[in-house]
Known about the structure:
Chain A is mainly alpha-helical.
Amino acid sequence: MxxxxxxxxxxxxSRLMWTMFALWxxxxxxxxxxxxxxxxxxxxxxxxxxxxxxxxxxxxxxxILFTFAKAQxxxxxxxGFAEE
Amino acid sequence: xxxxxxxxxxxxxxxxxxGRIYTLYTGGFFxxxxxxxxxxxxxxxxxxxxxxxxxxxxxxxxxxxxISRTAEVGEYYVAGRRVPAFYNGMATGADWMSGASFVGxxxxxxxxxxxxxxxxxxxxxxxxxxxxxxxxFLRKFGAFTVxxxxxxxxxxxxxxxxxxxxxxxxxxxxxxxxxxxTGIIAQRFLGMDFVxxxxxxxxxxxxCSMLGGMKAVTWTQVAQYIVLIVAYLxxxxxxxxxxxxxxxxxxTYGQALQDITALEQSLVANGLAxxxxxxxxxxxxxxYDPLNFFALIFCLMVGTASLPHILMRYFxxxxxxxxxxxxxxSLFFIxxxxxxxxxxxxxxxxxxxxxxxxxxxxxxxxxxxxxGSIGLVKVCGVAxxxxxxxxxxxxxxxxxxxxxxxxxxxxxxxxxVLSTPEIAGLPYVIAGLVAAGGLAAALSTADGLLLxxxxxxxxxxxxxxLDKNAPTHRRLIVARILLVxxxxxxxxTASTKPADILSMVAWAxxxxxxxxxxxxxxxxxxxxxxxxxxxxxxxxxxxxCLYYLVGTRYFAxxxxxxxxxxxxxxxxxxAKFAELQAACAADAAKCAEFDKHxxxxxxxxxxxxxxAALFGLPVGFLTIWVVSLFTPAPSERIQAMVDATRxxxxxxxxxxxxxxxxxx
Lengths: 84, 664
């Protein structure tokens, strides 16, 4: 096993957290600030602003969560802090 | 996985066969639905079909609950930490989606249009916070309850006690509402007396949770999830296929949205809708202003990440890694319902705008009267019990054209999901299925909440604070007695139909967010957070939130007078306030109106009280930050403990002397 460095593991963990947090902020709030502009675009009958709140952001949350689980697992493994 | 070997004897067989067992169960459920459908065609009365659904599903949950009984502390509190991520996700989905989500969410979207999507967003996005900030760390910590973490991290039982108070405050009203919902569903579909129905629901809940604690609740919740999601998706999938030929309602309702927008304009043009009152379905901010829309999303999300009955589900996974994956699966299973709800709303709205409004009063659709007779649909201000009642009421309105106008119609939000089978012309068996789904949603949430409350009382208050030497069997007996007592208390409260309690459910999110979130997150993410900071932060954050909720709701005139400089009241509203105040002083009968008006202007910057955490959260975070910097840093031992919490490898931080849980 390589040299374990708790501080470095935590730095990488924190950086991942802030990245995911920024994505969360974007899909929870920022994208919906522009609902009126997005509603000008219509796809399959869905005005895009409405679609983002009804489905788009939800799908983004799902992708964020599965990506996060995988990425954090990679960090834990490469830093030697993963579970058996 | 090292831990599966050491546990093969203790239920490992069941866990390794989960896939087969639940596939069989799902197949059995479909066969059961098919059987009832055949019985219906053979002429068996609807009432028996309804009873068949409700009693058979409850019996299945109860059997799972009894099979999963346990005399093991670790099994009782955290299901032996053996629940795989996928199944824990399903259980969390059922735990999370309440009777109100199942029955009421689509109706809210029907009434509010775009603004209702604040609930869809708020009740899903919070899981990102759960995963990145909280759940994996609490799993590593090895707590039995959320207050366990507060006690270890923030110097003992005072912090524990505060966490228990917040937990009980936000969970009790919530569980009461769930039991109320089971009563309503049983009453509506089975024609049972409401109070009897409440206690029947209570029995179902207790059978699921009492003998097996978390272990039993987990496996019944998985079974309940399957019933509720099938019941939710099936009617709207059939409806979508009928209307558009594609069985994916989540895609086809885009067309319905276009049709709704066109109909909104033609209804106004034809004098069938009042342009001033019509809220265009896709237009944002017709009910909430942007501040309240985003504040609501924020409070619901942070509240999600603070509700103890959700957080404790992630204590049951075999590892930290699976806890993270489990949050993702949870959202997946919740997503299946929440991204379908807007489709329900759109299809119902299309139906109402195209085939209900504009009809001659002599020729109204049959289902209106079915729900009108139980008071859920009103036409021209009276319950739509019969054509004559409707015609008389509308005849009394000057200039009524004799055809139904949009403003004549008032539909209770609950009708939207319940009436879809009838709108689509589906047989009664589908309506029975929907009832079983609503019941599963309410029962599973009630189970989780009840367990959260009873475990906090038995583990945190009784075992950790009152009798640290209690032997295993006594701990479990106390846990079960408390569970029954809390359940009885909630059922009794529900049976009195307390209007206030039901409207207070939405408060649970703000209370949990303000009381728990800041101390929990800083406790993990900031080593410097001290006991004094956390304790004061919890008291002030929760306190200010509670003050705002109670003040604006129950003491509105006083609250307004004290904070009038922060209120968003217009000059006209201020004048009306003074006028009604004088009227109330002269005649006590006018005081109700005065209080009601005061509630609309008793606020800080126009924030609705459902979003009270908007004030509680910053106060909580700031207090912890400032007070921590003014008090000595936590001890070496605590700081080392925080470090260990952040690293998945290694043993859990706290270990219960009575629990034989797998080690890594």
